[in-house]
Amino acid sequence: MNFIPSPLFRNINPEELKEICSLQCLRQCSFSKGETIFHMGDLIHEMGVVLSGNVHIENVDLWGNKSILQNISIGQMFAETYVLCHEPLMVDVVCTADAEILLIDICALLQKENWQTSWYAKLHHNLFMCSLQKNLALSNRIFCTTSKTVRGRLFSYFSFQSVRAGSTEFTIPFDRQQMADYLNLERSALSKELGKMRNEGLIDFHKNHFSLKYDKSNHFGLPDCSK
């Protein structure tokens, strides 16, 4: 394994990666679409990195209501907090497509005997930075679900997606049901509001590709409150 497409291994050269692999703390596993990698309640010792495919972090309450907390795409990591804190999972980690997952015994890699290696400081720094990025992503979801209205949540979500894409056109990683689960909405209410917003000329969309009809003088056609 000469290259791992993940920020977790940024600036780690092939020789250093070979040394890491020799510690037998990494293993690559294949999962099918719909398969659960980790279950709520599991006490795990390995974190994951998505090499191919896609993964959702989900929470299902006792009544069967599902919320999608985060989408994990290629190169991103998951479950590291539960591993490092030695806490049982409060979420399910589910593949939304056939996936190749790199499972990493991160605690073993961060043991004291590895402190003097050339790769230790790099891995430690990368882990920290990736964790900060995940915290930002979770904070964004909180912003997106704060509004009490369906349209308010959609405006927040579309604004974040537009900023991330650097464009008023973007593709989201969710189908309609997944989008509803992410925003904590009923699918029927979500679909109805999307239809209204399109009819009003605020947005256009095809499947999971969206285009915002953005007017700098009046964002998304909202009423001018200055008058």
The main pleated sheet reads as: 4 strands, antiparallel
Which structural class is indicated by helix and strand composition?
Answer: alpha+beta
Enumerate the spans where pLDDT stays under 50 for 5 or more consecutive residues: 221-227
Q: What is the ordering of alpha helices and beta strands?
A: HEEEEEEHEEHHHEHHEE
* Number of separate strands: 11
Average pLDDT, rounded to a whole number, is 91
The amount of helix comes to 25-40%
Number of helices: 7
Cα(first) to Cα(last) distance is: 62 Å
Strands side by side in the biggest sheet? 1-8-3-6
DSSP strand content:
15-25%
Rg, Å, rounded: 20 Å
The global form is elongated
Task: Walk me through this protein's architecture.
This protein has 227 residues and is α+β, with helices and mostly antiparallel strands. It contains seven helices and eleven strands. Mean pLDDT is 91; it is low at 221-227.
Record the SSE blueprint.
Elements: H1 14-22, E1 26-31, E2 36-38, E3 47-52, E4 55-60, E5 66-72, E6 77-78, H2 80-85, E7 92-95, E8 99-104, H3 106-109, H4 120-144, H5 150-165, E9 169-171, H6 176-183, H7 187-199, E10 203-206, E11 209-212
Antiparallel strand pairs: 1-8, 2-7, 3-6, 3-8, 4-5, 4-7, 9-11, 10-11
